[in-house]
Amino acid sequence: QSSTFENGSPKKTLIILGTGWGAVSLLQSMDTTLYNVTVVSPRNYFLFTPFLTSTPVGAIDINSIMEPIRHILRSAKGEVKFLEASATDIDPENKTIKVVNSSGDERVLSYDYLVMSVGAKTTTFNIPGVRENAFFIKEAHDSIRIREKIMKNIEHACFLDPSDPKRKQLLSFVVVGGGPTGVEMAAELQDFVNESLTKWMPDIAKDITVHLVEGLPHILNMFDKNIITYSEEFILKSKINLILNTFVKGVDADNVHIEQNKVSKQFPYGILIWATGNQPRDISVTLSKKLGEHQSERRGLQINEKLQVLGAEDSIFAIGDCTYHAGLAPTAQVAHQEGTYLSGLLAKLNEIDQLSWKIAQVGTSEKRAIKLKEKMREMVINLPDFVYDYKGSLAYIGAERAVADLKIAGKDYQLRESPFAFFFWKMVYLSMCVSFRNCLVVSMDWFKTYFFGRGNV
Ligand code: FAD
Ligand code: NAD
């Protein structure tokens, strides 16, 4: 891919890996006429993760939170190519990447600038049996699989005699990890039991137990203490079996093996959902290894204040969950702000590249070239740093209640008991939807669920 600006200067090639929060924020805010832009991702849609846990229980339809990447690219100023493929290798010296599609076809692409926004995968800490037996809640297909399994277990339990111990096992829904993902998932499951199943299948509903297992003494550890206490009390009242101070040590096909006060125990499960945080994807690890001593952090790619990857500062940027940087949590909020910042930085880099091309045209000895060089140096020095503007954290805790830790004009505010927090949670996330369609269909799903119940069958 090569093209030039009107004055004949070559356009640089920008490759963006991913179609998640970071990449889409970048694409929606950047002037795509400044580069030859190619987006590579195994997913040809954007996934609105904050509502993902509402989808396996049918409160929101999974399609409502998937926005086709081509819809998003249609509103870009310049042409953007999309390749549905995964990056499997990066050569930072020769500035090339290898990409492979789902049919196994390979291509090598050259870049001038590369943006890593490949996100992260769910960590299992290599705990035995987790990858084989647990569901994750990270992608659209995870939601679909969990949804199928929930209904399969419920129908299977209906088929069995109430005294059959297998029935109890099938109706034991276990969520591991008391971070916001685990809490929201357990809350949605319990809402489904309390609000929908009690009406359709009261005999099944009363036998379902949703367990939430957390290794530390508390859940939602990034929130304020008062919010944590309120959330734990609220969750217990909603009948979730909250199991704190308990690390899961292993999983087999039927049982979760835990350690409580240094005593090993086990209990049966019918569905196991694993949400214990993030670990880097293989492509991030591959790049990290190639950059050797510059990259020493196992939790993600190390970046500087301009989001440049250490060891490849001239050409590779990284944003979102694939990075590790003190003070920047792996959240949509961070990825979104980084994407917006990077769009501005790329516009400035284009100006610098243009100047550099002009200098090459006029020759270094001329007076004009000296002036241009001075201007270019100033522009490089004045490139702004990324500054994260933390606005707060929100989490859904079930039964139309949410908690919020907010930062407004430098002051901290909390929302807990107030039913307004739930409305606020909905409004904040609706405002973050990437398209009007996205916003509208999610609102319609809420309306449908409120008046006609969940659509889970
Ligand atoms: P992602 O959004 O994960 O996107 C990564 C992209 O890279 C995807 O398109 C993926 O297909 C693509 N990709 C993967 N491998 C490759 C490859 N090899 N080559 C090319 N492309 C690749 N954060 C909040 O702030 N608020 C919330 O309420 C919230 N709720 C969440 C709920 C759930 C259930 C989950 C799982 C996360 C939630 N988060 C929330 C966290 C938030 O989703 C992430 O921080 C955010 O998605 C990070 O954006 P990203 O662009 O780095 O990665
Ligand atoms: P997390 O890292 O926030 O929480 C994981 C939890 O699992 C921790 O509390 C940890 O102690 C626990 N854990 C780890 N190993 C365990 C084990 N073997 N047994 C029992 N418990 C164990 O992970 P997350 O909830 O997936 O969140 C990932 C990121 O996404 C975070 O940055 C989070 O803020 C963000 N997120 C935000 C929201 C929101 O803002 N509402 C929602 C979901 C995710």
Automatic annotation (TrEMBL):
<keyword id="KW-0285">Flavoprotein</keyword>
<feature type="domain" description="FAD/NAD(P)-binding">
    <location>
        <begin position="13"/>
        <end position="339"/>
    </location>
</feature>
<comment type="similarity">
    <text>Belongs to the NADH dehydrogenase family.</text>
</comment>
<dbReference type="GO" id="GO:0050136">
    <property type="term" value="F:NADH dehydrogenase (quinone) (non-electrogenic) activity"/>
</dbReference>
<keyword id="KW-0560">Oxidoreductase</keyword>
<feature type="domain" description="External alternative NADH-ubiquinone oxidoreductase-like C-terminal">
    <location>
        <begin position="390"/>
        <end position="454"/>
    </location>
</feature>
<keyword id="KW-0274">FAD</keyword>
<protein>
    <recommendedName>
        <fullName>NADH:ubiquinone reductase (non-electrogenic)</fullName>
        <ecNumber>1.6.5.9</ecNumber>
    </recommendedName>
</protein>
<keyword id="KW-0809">Transit peptide</keyword>
<dbReference type="GO" id="GO:0005739">
    <property type="term" value="C:mitochondrion"/>
</dbReference>
<keyword id="KW-0520">NAD</keyword>
